[in-house]
Design goal:
By secondary structure, the chain is an alpha/beta fold. It has 19 helices and 10 strands.
Length: 441
């Protein structure tokens, strides 16, 4: 899609192609400490997306993509076993407090718009959804009774409400499924949205409605400037299924759909795996960037082992750091409750912190502007044995302070691990021309 400055625009992508720096681009540039024109150029190229629905009044825009800080998404939402809107909103507050950049409403029970309305009013972070989850509850129909029009109508409703980005599994075509069926996977389809569409397609004999009516979907996305997050319905759910024909065939479809979306002025994210051995991650990121024309890459994990239930925030952070260092742009958090149940408030906190560690480590590796400033500030505070300075630099200052105070040191210039044998204290004293004494006289 090509545009001139004199032409009208409706989305961030269209504005960028017109040579216009929008207020949202200005905010992203200021936050990232980069020139606004550089941000505009990357939005125009599709290598950066700024999800910002026109109806999300509370939004503080964030950029996702090339050269920017790696962003963190948090999945929340009500379920049939826990339909407590208040609890999920409290988890939202915790996620935002510890640095989440976006919240995805994955509610799958009842009239989910009530929870979403609360999210959109109180959250300055980006809000995402998976409309296919909502179709059954919204229309109060069983899956087989839903029509293609129903799926599209739910997507339109989410856009009208103010959702900034939507996961749409449009790449799960009958062609991609033919490849999947020959693979004889160990875990088959583990994407919730993907499995619902697969079941609907198999029961009705129809093509994926989001693929068949993709142009109409794009019209909705463009009208409200919703970013299209092309979901990976065939992502691997275990190490055995990683980088197989089904995953790659769907990724190829997503690359073709990316170009169609860009042509209509719609911003795009590409979603990725999943479970994957450590040595496969970088190659997968490179492959996604090539097949999907360097569109921003949004990954769940990847989880690098299948045997750590209760600790999958760690397995995810390991994979996320490798993926982001290789070029992934957006990490979906994983909590200790992954594969086991709905996360509680502490699980949300642990998941966000683990993902932020992974993202920050990758940003340092990628030389993202200013990424190392806080690390250098921490090092200066440690050199000066400045505990308050250290706490202020920490991702979780309260936890850091609690550990320090758990066994209060006799000498407040050290900690309870080394006491007077603190290497920093010893070296600082010698370099200052002082005598080092280990024993009281």
């Amino acid at each position: 899609m090509e545009a001139k400055k004199s032409e009208t625009w409706n989305t961030q992508r269209e504005a960028a192609l017109c040579g216009i720096v929008t207020p949202q681009m200005e905010i992203v540039a200021a936050d990232e400490k980069q020139p606004a024109e550089a941000v505009r150029e990357r939005v125009a190229a599709g290598t950066v997306a700024i999800p910002c629905n026109k109806n999300h009044a509370a939004l503080h825009p964030e950029g996702i993509g090339l050269g920017l800080r790696t962003k963190i998404n948090v999945n929340l939402g009500i379920s049939g076993d826990s339909p407590d809107y208040g609890a999920e909103l409290r988890k939202t507050d915790i996620a935002l407090r510890f640095g989440a950049d976006s919240i995805m409403d994955l509610s799958n029970y009842g009239k989910t718009n009530q929870f979403r309305e609360g999210l959109l009013k109180r959250s300055s972070a980006m809000i995402g959804t998976v409309p296919v989850y909502d179709a059954v509850g919204y229309f109060e129909k069983d899956l087989l009774s839903l029509t293609a029009r129903d799926f599209l109508d739910v997507a339109r409703r989410h856009a009208q409400e103010g959702v900034d980005f939507m996961t749409i599994h449009a790449g799960l075509t009958r062609r991609a499924l033919s490849v999947f069926k020959t693979e004889h996977r160990m875990m088959n389809i583990v994407s919730r949205g993907g499995s619902l569409l697969f079941a609907w397609m198999e029961m009705t004999g129809h093509e994926n409605p989001f693929y068949e009516h993709f142009d109409e979907l794009l019209s909705v996305m463009r009208e409200y400037d919703v970013t299209l997050s092309l979901g990976d319905a065939l992502r691997p759910g275990c190490l055995s299924d990683a980088t197989d024909g089904g995953q790659i065939s769907e990724l190829t479809e997503l690359g073709l759909l990316t170009e169609r979306a860009w042509e209509k002025g719609v911003q795009v994210l590409i979603e990725g795996p999943g479970h994957m051995a450590l040595n496969e991650i970088a190659a997968n990121v490179i492959l996604e960037k090539r097949l999907c024309h360097n569109a921003p890459f949004y990954v769940l994990g990847p989880l690098v082992t299948d045997i750590a239930p209760g600790y999958d925030h760690i397995t995810s952070a390991i994979g996320g750091a490798v993926a982001a260092a290789a070029g992934a742009d957006f990490l979906c958090y994983v909590t200790p409750a992954e594969h086991l149940g709905l996360p509680d408030e502490n699980d949300v906190k642990e998941g966000v912190i683990a993902s932020r560690i992974a993202a920050h480590a990758a940003d340092i590796a990628k030389n993202v502007p200013s990424a190392r400033e806080v690390d250098d500030a921490m090092s200066r505070a440690r050199h000066e044995v400045d505990w308050e300075g250290m706490f202020s630099c920490a991702l979780d200052p309260e936890k850091a302070k609690a550990y320090y105070e758990r066994i209060p040191p006799a000498d407040r210039h050290t900690c309870s691990m080394c006491g007077r044998m603190c290497a920093i204290r010893t070296t600082n004293m010698i370099l200052a021309g002082k005598r080092v004494k280990m024993m009281d006289e």
